[in-house]
Amino acid sequence: MLSIEDIKSLMKEMDSSSISELKYESEETKITLRKASAIAEKAAIQPAPVQIAAAQPIASDAPEKTEKDTEPDASLHKITAPMVGTFFSSSKPDAEAYVKKGSKVDKKTVVCIVEAMKLFNEIEAECKGTIVDILAEDGQLVEYGQPLFLVKED
After folding, report:
1. Do the bridges between strand 119-124 and strand 147-153 make them parallel or antiparallel, or are there none, so unpaired?
2. Claim: this prediction has a pTM higher than 0.70
3. Which of 9, 16, 23, 123 is the most buried (most CB within 10 A)?
4. What is the CA radius of gyration of the chain?
């Protein structure tokens, strides 16, 4: 059985390779990992199946803001989603957000949670700096590699 750490490791290896899709099946587990580019290629080549159609609103919610904010200033560090899941800015619905615009962060600062398969994964900043923009909203479905935060590094 694959652990969440094994899956995270597979995602990192896949991200740095030319592989666009990976399927794994065992008696207990069945997972499919796809890069966002592979999903876009499938959508362009064939009629959109239900899976692709469901993913389209996710892409249309953020790109306008993301593209406008990230293209002009490439010096900003992007904190990206390490997996497909649901974005949460705090540990509980009534709790204060981990970070806000203007918050100072270091490499180990928890900036949000991405929930995947009933597991709540704390996402760390991975850099030292100041949060410039928050690109995802509470409860929003996020794709693997999707920018969640922009950070001006110190």
Report:
1. unpaired
2. no
3. 123
4. 16
Q: What is the pLDDT of residue 142?
A: 94
How many structural domains comprise the chain? 1
Domain span including residue 142:
4-153
Please answer whether residues 111 and 98 qualify as being in contact, where contact means their C-beta atoms are separated by less than 8 angstroms.
Answer: yes
The Cα–Cα gap between 22 and 6 comes to: 13
- Residue 104 has which token pair? 């100072």
Per-chain mean pLDDT for the chain:
78
Instruction: Give CA separation, 84 vs 35, 36, 81, 131, 140, in Å.
Output: 10, 10, 7, 22, 11
Whether the CB-CB separation of 61 and 140 falls below 8 Å is answered with yes
Torsion of CA 47, 53, 58, 64, to 10 degrees: 40
CB 134 within 8 A of CB 89: yes
